[in-house]
Design goal:
Strand content: 25-35%
Strand order of the largest sheet: 14-13-12-11-7-10-9-8-16
CATH topology of the largest domain: Dihydrodipicolinate Reductase, domain 2
Distance between the termini: 41 Å
Shape: globular
Helix content: 25-40%
Bound molecules: NADP nicotinamide-adenine-dinucleotide phosphate
Number of helices: 9
């Protein structure tokens, strides 16, 4: 099946394009980007032209930041194309619901991808937690924003999510590995004086059995990143680290292989594209909004703290 990448930037180059090129399901047929292109691949600068000139391309994968994504997705769905969405699937909950309704009505595939859910040890963690009683769980998702998001000014603008741009990855894992849903009951969001999005946040979650569930997210960490989730249960403890690529249970390594720190996200995008191929063949929708709802609720009920300006 032919697919076009829309928004040729960091994640498209790092992950999407290699995953498509190595896939037996997909043919990398075109790019749509106002400034970017990929050598040897037909390029377009606007989506409308691609949609009218290339009826052979059944699917588009949207890799731009979240704020413009809805308009692109709706135009593609209206043109009868299947759509794959980078995370977060949109800038608001309502626009994601509108896309879902449109895709279901039109019997088109729509996939809200959560790449961290495809990390090597996430399913193992979910299986281990399934029959345990959770007592405590803490998320620590801290990284150096200058290392991971160089020059990405959109992350500091309204709708860019700030620290929740990576933080929503932790929430996508949380909502996959826990057998019951949690909700945000309290939050503190730290906004630099000169930014529209938070640089750090702490969240407290309500859990149906009263387990203590918390999250710390911080863009100001220097050096190595911390992307981990630690859980204490009646059957022992679990540490899911390195963004879901590594799992320790009661101090024993459970990872299929010890991850290479230079291969962050390895395997995640090939799995996303395999999932998208299945959804496209079956004309189905996979649109789990639970991570986005947790972030939206943090913005709704969180206390706001103004902190020192950030030198972007
Ligand atoms: P990016 O490099 O800053 O942006 C990707 C491309 O989107 C840009 O090169 C730009 O291409 C296009 N774009 C930017 N603003 C736009 C606008 N207003 N309208 C239309 N197109 C626009 O960002 P990224 O890091 O690839 O992230 C994109 C998405 O992927 C985000 O939602 C992010 O959360 C997700 N993601 C990123 C990473 C990562 O490591 N960076 C990892 C996983 C997921 P043109 O100017 O050529 O149109």
């Amino acid at each position: 099946m032919k697919i076009a990448i829309v928004g040729v930037g960091k994640i498209a180059r790092d992950q999407h394009i290699p995953a498509i090129q190595n896939s037996l399901d997909w043919e990398f047929a075109a790019t749509v980007s106002r400034h970017g292109s990929f050598e040897g691949i037909p390029s377009y600068t606007d989506l409308a032209t691609l949609l009218s000139e290339r009826p052979d391309i059944a699917c588009v994968s949207l890799c731009m930041p979240p704020v413009p994504r809805y308009d692109y997705a709706m135009v593609a769905l209206n043109a009868g194309r299947h759509v794959m969405l980078e995370k977060p699937p949109g800038a608001s909950v309502a626009e994601c619901i509108a896309l879902e309704t449109k895709a279901r009505d039109a019997k088109l595939a729509l996939y809200a991808t959560w790449h961290s859910r495809e990390a090597a040890c996430v399913d193992l963690a979910r299986e281990w937690l399934a029959d345990k009683r959770l007592r405590r769980l803490s998320i620590a998702w801290c990284e150096d924003v200058r290392k991971w998001h160089p020059g990405q000014t959109w992350i500091w603008e309204a709708g860019g999510l700030g620290v929740f741009d990576p933080g929503i990855n932790a929430l996508s894992i949380l909502t996959k590995i826990l057998p019951v849903p949690v909700r945000v009951v309290a939050a503190e969001l730290s906004f630099p004086e000169n930014c529209e999005t938070p640089i750090a946040a702490t969240l407290n979650f309500g859990h149906p059995d009263g387990a203590e569930v918390t999250g710390t997210f911080d863009f100001r960490q220097l050096g190595d990143e911390t992307w981990s989730i630690a859980a204490e249960t009646d059957g022992g403890n679990l540490i899911l680290s390195e963004g879901g690529a590594r799992l320790m249970v009661n101090g024993v390594e459970r990872s299929p292989r010890v991850p290479d720190v230079n291969q962050a996200m390895s395997g995640e995008y090939p799995r996303l594209y395999a999932n998208m191929a299945k959804l496209t063949n079956e004309r189905r929708v996979d649109m789990d909004l639970s991570p986005l709802i947790l972030v939206a609720d943090a913005f709704l009920i969180g206390r706001r703290k103004i902190v020192e300006p950030f030198d972007k």
